[in-house]
Amino acid sequence: MGNIRDTGACGMTGENADASPRSDPQVSHAEFLACRRFESLDGLRALSILAVIWHHTAATAFGGGLLAYMGTEGVTLFFAISGFLITTLLLRERHRTGLIDLRAFYVRRALRIFPLYYAVLMVYLVLVVVLERNSAVGGQFFRNLPYFLTYTSNWFVPLDGRVIFYFAWSLAAEEQFYLVWPALMNRLKTGARALVVIAAVTAVLIGIESLPVSDPFFRF
Q1: CA-CA distances (angstroms) from residue 19 to 7, 11, 23?
Q2: Any residues with CB less than 8 A from the CB of 22 and at least 6 apart, and which?
């Protein structure tokens, strides 16, 4: 079977790991634990990105319709991929050490996301001051700025009409997941408890999502 190469990609082993996929589709548990990159998920990421691009272009180019707006499912797919990857990493850490180091996890996430996020927000701030300072949407941006700074825009920023920096809602939702889920996993030491909590949370989210309201406080 050979060892996983330094690339850490699942499905690639042996001396020719960089050249072609292994013929045996089965991956041992040890190999799975050694994988740092799941190549099949790269394709799903690409599909989710294309779906979002389609959503933001098809409505204008093709006059809308159900097919145009189904691109929002790309965000849902991206969330699912992120949840799978983060949970996998956390389970591996707990398997190795018996506990998830929350401080180290939060530091890693902050260093990965915060610098670029706040740099982009600063660019938007400068552009709004220069180009939209006296406009209605510019004023709304400044009112929404505290929510953008604190990753809470998915709760408090209405997404109706033109909203500058509106896309921050998805990052806000992801950051909130990072904040809560690892701590919860530290508490859920058994699979049965985890399944009960996951089922309960899923039921609540499905119920909220089905509410006939547009208030972002009730929508994710």
Answers
A1: 12, 12, 12
A2: 11, 12, 13, 14
Kindly write down the DSSP assignment for every residue of 2-25, as one continuous string.
Answer: -PBPTT-BTT-BSTTTTTS--S--
pLDDT in tens, 101-155: 999 999 999 999 999 999 999 999 999 999 998 999 999 999 999 999 999 998 8
Phi first, then psi: give them for residue 159, nearest 5 degrees.
-105, 20
Contact (Cβ atoms closer than 8 angstroms) between residue 180 and residue 151: no
- How many other C-beta atoms can be found within 10 angstroms of the C-beta atom of residue 54? 19
CB of 22 within 8 A of CB of 3?
Answer: no
Sequence spans of domains, the chain: 1-37, 39-99, 104-220
Answer yes or no: are the C-beta atoms of 66 and 82 closer than 8 Å.
Answer: no
- Does residue 153 sit in helix, strand or coil? helix
Q: What would the two tokens of residue 75 be?
A: 């965000």
Determine the residue type at 64: G
Query: If we measure between CA atoms, which residue out of 128, 170, 130, 162 comes closest to residue 145?
Result: 128
| Cα 114 to Cα 61: distance, rounded to the nearest angstrom | 34
Instruction: Centre a 10 Å sphere on the Cβ of residue 160 and count the other Cβ atoms it contains.
Output: 8
pLDDT in tens, 15-29: 334 433 444 556 676
Residues listed for the chain? 220
- How large is the greatest C-alpha to C-alpha distance in the chain, in angstroms? 66
